[in-house]
Each structure stands twice: as C-alpha cells, then as structure tokens.
Design brief:
- It is a single chain.
- By secondary structure, the chain is mainly alpha-helical.
- It folds into two domains: 66 residues, Winged helix-like DNA-binding domain superfamily/Winged helix DNA-binding domain (Arc Repressor Mutant, subunit A); 143 residues, Up-down Bundle (Four Helix Bundle (Hemerythrin (Met), subunit A)).
- The chain is 67% helix and 4% strand.
- It contains ten helices and three strands.
- Helix 7 packs antiparallel against helix 8.
- It is globular.
C-alpha cells in the first residue's frame, strides 16, 4: 500500500477541535490526487496529529467521522486509507452530477445577476489563445474546478449544493486528472464559453443542455481512456 503525501496546516487547540480537524482533513484529501498510484493513499494518524499540532485523539475521532461519510476506510492492523471508486461508480457519480449541475445551470439563468454571470466569464479571461492555454494548464485545472463550484453556488439551491458536495471529492479528482489528456483542456475551454454564452442569454434550456453534455463528455472520456480505474 502507498503512503501519499498530504498537506495540512497546524491548528490551534480550542473547543470543537474534532470538527476543525475533520474540516482540515477533508480539505486536504480533496486536494490530493487519490488516483495517482495503483494503491489507495494511506493516512498516517501520528503524522497527521503532528502536522496539525494536536493530539492523536481528535485526529482519530475525525477519521471515524470521515469513515462514516465514506471518505476513508479504517482497516484494523493495517491503517486508514482514502476510499477510491471503481470506474462504474465514477461513471454513475458523473451522471448524477450532470443531471444536478444541468438543473443548477437552468436555475442560474433565472436567479443570478448579470454581474455574477460575468464573473464566470472573467475566470477564463487569460485563456484566449493556444499559447496561454498551454502555459496555464495547471492553473486552468483549478479554474475548471472553481467554475463548476461557482455555477452550482449561483443556482441558490442549498439541496443541490449539499448533494454535489458529497460527490465533489471524486468528480474533482477526475477533472484534475483528465484535463491534461487528449487535448481536453482546449475542448473544455470551448465548452465553458458556450455555457457562459447560454447563461448570458438567459437561455434556460441551452444552459442546461450544454452543462449536462459537458459533464457527460467527461464520463465518455473516462469510459474510453481511464484504464487505471479498472
């Protein structure tokens, strides 16, 4: 089993420490490339406690919470591992995400202000020619993630946000990993601009369709090219 590096920041001790440790670990896991190696990432309880500046008790409690959420799995005498999904599970998650994000996009056309929608366009302002796209590929990956989070947030639907938050860890990992494959970055930028144009026109049906199709394109890519999930 592999022990992957995990970046966490030291915490000050105070009440509700378990909750703060849980939030810190969740954010750190979300930032990991959990599909980078053949084996699932292993988390070292002692190391995490030292890096967070807390005792092992709140770390152990936080990991138990994350296990209940299905984010990690604690195996007696072996350790704690980040849960990874199979290809079939990932594809199902993306299909659910596509439906929910498409609905969110339709809601954005009705609820978001012109200024809020214009900020989505501004996220891609530096990606206007091929040279810039290649030069900022890593930055674009993060921008890609932020775009989808912002779109869901602008829908104003707390329920959609809560459900997609539970899918976000693995959807994010797949978007980050696949954006460098088979010119997906360039194609993705075109997709995003079509989405923004539909939102700016307040075209409810087109916004919903383009957002859904964009996510389903990720599913098709994973189904065809991601052998590391088999």
């Amino acid at each position: 089993m592999s022990t992957s590096a995990i970046s966490v920041q030291r915490l000050d001790t105070e009440p509700a420490l378990k909750e703060r440790v849980c939030e810190a670990l969740l954010a750190a896991i979300a930032a990991m490339d959990i599909y980078a190696e053949p084996e699932p990432p292993k988390l070292d309880e002692r190391q995490l406690a030292a890096r967070l500046g807390v005792s092992r008790t709140p770390v152990r409690e936080a990991l138990a919470v994350l296990e209940q959420k299905g984010i990690v799995k604690i195996i007696p005498r072996r350790g704690t591992f980040v849960v990874r999904k199979t290809k079939r599970e990932i594809l199902e998650m993306i299909q659910v995400w596509a439906a929910l994000e498409g609905t969110a996009a339709a809601m954005v056309t009705e609820r978001a202000s012109d200024e809020e929608i214009s900020r989505l366009r501004g996220m891609f302002a530096t990606f206007t020619d091929d040279g810039e796209i290649r030069a900022h590929i890593d930055e674009y990956s993060e921008t890609n993630i932020n775009f989808h989070q912002a779109l869901i947030s602008l829908s104003g639907s707390r329920l959609i946000k809560e459900i997609t938050d539970n899918l976000f860890l693995h959807i994010r990992a797949m978007r980050m990993r696949s954006i460098n494959e088979r010119d997906r970055a360039q194609r993705s930028i075109i997709d995003h601009m079509h989405i923004i144009e539909a939102l700016e026109r307040r075209d409810r049906d087109e916004a919903q369709r383009t957002v859904r199709d964009h996510s389903l394109d990720l599913a098709r890519h994973i189904e065809l090219y991601t052998d590391y999930l088999d």
